[in-house]
Amino acid sequence: MKERILTGDRPTGPMHLGHYVGSLENRVKLQEEYDCFFIVADYQFLTDHLRETEYTEEFIKLVLLDWLSVGMDPEKSTFFIQSRIPEITELTMFFSMLVSLARLQRNPTVKEEFRASGLGAISYGFIGYPVSQAADILVVRANLVPVGDDNLPHIEQTREIARTFNGIFGEVFPVPEALIGRVDRLPGLDGQKMGNSAGNAIYLIDSPEKVREKVNTAITDPARIRASDKGHPDICNIYHYHCAFNEEEKSEIEKQCRQGKIGCVACKEYLAGKINRFLEPIREKRAYFEARPQMVREAVLRGNERARREGEKTLELVREAVHFDYRNLLEGETIAV
Ligand code: TRP
Question: How far is the CA of 258 from the centre of ligand 1 (A)?
Answer without folding.
Answer: 39
